[in-house]
Design a protein that fits this description.
With 204 residues, this protein is mainly alpha-helical. The chain has one domain. 74% of the residues lie in helices and 0% in strands. Helix 4 packs antiparallel against helix 5, helix 4 packs antiparallel against helix 7 and helix 5 packs parallel to helix 7. It is globular, with a radius of gyration of 20 Å. The protein starts with a helix and ends with a helix. GO terms for molecular function: sphingosine-1-phosphate phosphatase activity.
């Protein structure tokens, strides 16, 4: 005879399996199913952006996204708050939402970079109006859509998404401040000096 804890665990596993089946069976709208893969889409876009611009600032931006994600995951292990029961297949903790934190970091850093930093030569062909104000507004809207989707998909509660937004925004502010004040730039260019010559010539 299963104990109440064992029955609860079995029900949780069945709920996750049912959620996976619903997602695979297209019982969710197409838009939500695409947003469920937002981490892969954003990561791939960032990777190609860094390669295309060959900019040290872009690489720093990408490194910040990884740092924000890791920081959010560490907070999850500290806070150990469960995700909504029976509405998600994910088994990790839910507070704060890593997706919400990372995309909020993107929105914060991009908005600050577009409005406060000079345009990098690799982006000289991009219309100025796209860089500012279109890019910051577009990124902010994208961020909000992804954050809302985490609730609609059942992966997080409103509080967990709010926690992710707070973490990502604060991390973005701090990461940008470290770059714009020159501290991170000095370290980054110092590291570049130790790279092989073919890599140094690639960075601009």
């Amino acid at each position: 005879m299963a104990t109440s804890a064992e029955r609860e665990k079995i029900q949780e596993i069945l709920s996750r399996d049912e959620y996976r089946s619903n997602l695979a069976g297209r019982n969710f709208p197409l838009g939500l199913r695409i947003l469920n893969q937002s981490n892969k889409i954003v990561t791939a876009s960032t990777f190609f952006y860094v390669l295309a611009t060959r900019s040290l600032a872009s690489a720093y931006f990408g490194l910040g996204a990884i740092g924000c994600m890791v920081f959010a995951k560490i907070l999850k292990e500290i806070l150990r708050e469960k995700r909504p029961v029976g509405t998600t297949y994910k088994i990790t903790y839910g507070m704060p939402s890593t997706h919400s934190a990372t995309i909020s970091y993107y929105a914060t850093f991009i908005a600050l970079a577009a409005t406060r930093l000079p345009v990098h030569p690799s982006l000289s062909s991009v219309p100025p109006k796209f860089i500012n104000p279109i890019a910051p507004v577009l990124m902010t809207v994208t961020s909000l859509v992804i954050c809302i989707s985490r609730i609609r998909l059942g992966h997080h509660t409103l509080k967990q998404v709010g926690g992710g937004i707070t973490v990502g925004t604060l991390f973005g502010l701090g990461w940008f401040a470290w770059w714009s004040t020159g501290g991170a730039q000095d370290i980054a260019w110092g590291v570049v000096e130790y790279l092989p010559s073919f890599l140094r010539s690639y960075i601009r």
